[in-house]
Amino acid sequence: MMRSTMIFALLIGGAVPAMRGQAAxxxxxxxxxxxxxxxLTALGVxxxxxxxxxxxxxxxxxxxxxxxxxxxxxxxCALGPDGRYLxxxxxxxxxxxxxxxxxANRWLLGAQASLLATTALFIIDLHPAxxxxxxxxxxxxxxxxxxx
Length: 148
Prior knowledge:
Elements: H1 2-72, H2 88-124
């Protein structure tokens, strides 16, 4: 019994420095992830915004083609009882424009989520103990004088 307790104590004593090293290694890894990850997510914001702009320009192109059809004749954009365009080409342009807009909205939502992640990583990467000291301003006198 005493022998197994001694072996256990030696193992625990030897494991404590290893655990401290692992904690430091984990902290270093987390700091590296925050430091480098913020730039990756910032790049993601830019890329997702560019993709959204591309989809929006496709939507705009389809919408302008639909407007050209509607301006070509008086009844070119007449709607049926179900709310759809009577002309099939007009309805196709409308549906494609909506599909491109939905895709652009999804890209923008992804960009916003990535922006939130970027902001969080920038905040996590702050090193509060390593910043400059607080430099106070010279005292100012503020007052109001009203003569009677």
